[in-house]
Every structure is written in structure tokens, then in C-alpha cells.
Amino acid sequence: MYKPQILVVDDSPEIRLSAAFILEDQGFTVLEAENHHYAQTALGDNNVDLILLDMNFSLDTTSGEEGLRFLTWLSKSNFVIPVIAMTGWSNVDLAVNAMRLGACDFVEKPWNNQRLIQIIRQQLKLAGLQVQNKKLKQQLESVDEQDFTWRSGVMKKLLQQIDSVAATDASILLTGDNGTGKSHLAQRIHQKSARASDTFISVNMGAISESLFESEMFGHKKGAFTDAKDNRIGRFELAKHGTLFLDEIANIPQSQQAKLLRVLESGEYEVLGSSLTQHADSRIISATNGDIAQLISDGTFREDLYFRLNTIELRVPSLKERQEDIAPLAKHFLALHGKKYKREEYTLTASALKTLEAYHWPGNVREMSHLMERAVLLAQTSSLGPEDLHLSNLKHNNLPMMTLDEAEQKLIEQALVLHHNNVPKAAITLGLTKSSMYRRLEKYGIKE
């Protein structure tokens, strides 16, 4: 088991010995240095987790000049270590100066053992959280750097719309089929908003049972109901000052819609088991793949809640509407999963790319990711062809018997639908020149 290492810097051997007895008894490893010169050497030779720093050494007894000099040096070094300053005289100005130079707390000698241990544990915990936050931030930054650049016009237009409204606090409703990437776009909105430095909390509304809705969303106090053995923080509190993403919003039970509406209208709610009114402060982004207009017509979704959620409504297009993105996206996922499984040598053949472009993608971007992950895991060669994609439900694999002319006409019609009647793009998909495509349109009497 790892023991945090604490460096005690003090010119008194008795003080260092006393500190060592106390700290080692609490499970810490103690290093000693009689002045700041030895302390600098100790920092270079050891992984120090915290410094207990005496502010006075040989120059005088009260000014703390040497301690301040060490803190100045530490602030300019590459070490990021919490420092607790200590002195034998109560000196408010010295404490303030030490804190300004980076000390995280201040104790007087002779110290209270219990208080000293409490401060040390608190500062070690805070330092651990700072390291964790830094790692999370780096993970987010690395995701951003590897993010896919959309080529299709429909996605470029959508991203422009998102970027123009992200900085506002307007509620946004994302609609579209399953697997189109609505949750990813919700995170993009958060990262480009004024709330980006605060939390992004996502909740799948379809996964919350009706009986637990209030507890999940608003939290509960210990003893609020039979199984409430501890306090629970609700999603609105977790997302305070940040963004709350309500995925599968159409699946909220009708009996709970009024409770959500009240928070969105007034910004107020109560934790279960408490009469104290809390104030919500979250940017709301919601998403659904359902037909809310039909649900409103059926009486299963409140129209006033819908209006609160969709200050701005943005539809996320299906993958089959993003033809220009299919091949680059496949290569992106191939590289991503190849790196994950340490199989980065794989490439897609031209025929494999054509096969992917011809597929109808009912599962959209999510299906693409899963398909490329499976291809990476099952591939026997580094060059992946159509047979390595395992697309058993490709429509062209199960064509009914028909004449070649009938088959050609159907393919032309499908290509035109795929490209919204853009003849040059449809021709490219079918491997035809533009003039050849126009001759076939005339031959079969197909109108643009």
C-alpha cells in the first residue's frame, strides 16, 4: 500500500523528530531537511506529496524571509506540491504572504496534533482531486484533437447552427434517429458554451423508473422513503452552473412531466424529504428519436413542456444523408479502434469503401463504430475488403430476380434518392460518367 511522503523542513532536530513520530504513526512516510537547500535536494530525489515548511531558519527568528524565499523558488520550479507553512509566532502578515506565494495552509508551533493531521489529510485529498481534474481535462482535450471533421453539407450546416447558439443559454432540443450522435453534439454545445468549465451531466430519461424520478432528478434526504439510507444528490444539483443533458426526453412518464416543467419554468425544486426550496441553474439540452408532435397529438406528452425544451430545435441527419462522410468516417473509426486494440496497420480497400457507401445504415454512426470495431477484431489481413465487414444484411446481397435493365433502373433511382436528385453525385456512386448517367435517365424515362 502506498504511503504519502511528507517532507518536514525545519532547522530544529527536535521538531523534525516530533513531526516524524506523529506522521509515521498515521501511516505517512517522513523525509527531513534542516533548511531549504537540503529541501531542494530532497525534492529532486524523492516523490514528495506534501511539504511541512518552517518559515524561519538561520537568518533571524520572526520575519519568515527564508520560508518565503523557498516558496518563491518552489512556485518557479516544475514541482506542484501542497505546502503547509508553520512558525512559532502568530504572524498574520507572514501567513498572508506565504499563502500568496503558494502555501495552501498555515499552522502555529507548537501545533495541535489532531488539527495538523486533519489539515495534512485535507490538503492531500485536494491535491489528488486536482490531479484527477487535470487528467480528465487532458482526456477531453485529446478527444477534441481526435474529433472527426464532417465533410457533408448537411453536417457542416448543423455545426454552424450549433456553434451560433452554443454561447447562449437557450434550451436546445436535438431530434433524429437512434445512433446519429446526439449525445456527442450535446457535449460539443457544452464545450463551446460559457458553462464549459463546469459539469456536463447526462441522464437517460428512459432508464429512470417512475418511482425513482424525483430522487434521481432532485435528490433525497436520508430517511425520505424506505430505502433512502443516505443522502443523494440529484441531477439538477450535480449540473449546477453547468449543462444538464436529458436524453430520450420523450420517455418521461406523463405523471412526472409536470414536475420537470415546474423546474424549467420557475427554476425551483425541493429535495425529497426537505421543505427547503432549491434553485436550479443549468443549461438544458434534450434529445429524442421519437415523434413528439405525434405524442402531443396522442396526449402522452405535454405541449407546454415541449415548448420549454425546444427554444431551438435541431434535427441531426441520419448517416445515409451524409454520403460524403461515410468513407472518411469509416477510416476514422478504423484508426480509432485499431489504436485501441494495438492493430493500427489496417486499411480499407476501394471495394470495401464502395460497399460501405452502398449500405443503408439503419444504426447510423453508432452502427458504423461497432462495425469497424468488429472488423478490427476479426480481420485476418491488414487490408480489409467487403468480406471483412460482415455486412450480412446488405440490400444488394438479397436482390430479387429481375432483368439487368430493371436492376439498373432500380440502382439509378436509389442513387438519385440517396443524393437528393443530384445527378453528378449519383453518377459517381454508380461508377458512371455524368453523360452516361444522363443517357440512362433518358433511356428509362426517369425525371430528375
Account of the protein in words:
It is elongated, with a radius of gyration of 31 Å. The protein is 48% helix and 14% strand. Helix 3 links the parallel strand 3 and strand 4 (83-87). Helix 16 (404-418) packs across helix 17 (423-430). The model is unreliable at 141-146 and 393-398 (pLDDT under 50). The N and C termini lie far apart (73 Å). The protein is an alpha/beta fold and 448 residues long. The protein has four domains: 5-133, Response regulator (Rossmann fold); 162-315, P-loop containing nucleotide triphosphate hydrolases (Rossmann fold, 3-Layer(aba) Sandwich), CATH 3.40.50; 319-394, Orthogonal Bundle (Helicase, Ruva Protein, domain 3); 399-444, Arc Repressor Mutant, subunit A. It has 18 helices and 16 strands.
What's a quick, concise take on this entry?
This protein has 448 residues and is of the alpha/beta class. 48% of the residues lie in helices and 14% in strands.
Topology:
Blueprint: E1 5-9, H1 13-25, E2 29-33, H2 36-45, E3 50-54, H3 65-76, E4 83-87, H4 92-100, E5 105-108, H5 113-145, H6 153-166, E6 172-175, H7 182-191, E7 200-204, H8 213-218, E8 219-220, E9 232-233, H9 235-238, E10 243-247, H10 254-266, E11 268-270, E12 277-279, E13 283-288, H11 292-298, H12 303-309, E14 312-315, H13 323-340, E15 347-348, H14 350-358, H15 364-378, E16 383-384, H16 404-418, H17 423-430, H18 434-444
Parallel strand pairs: 1-2, 1-3, 3-4, 4-5, 6-13, 6-14, 7-10, 10-13, 15-16
Antiparallel strand pairs: 8-9, 11-12
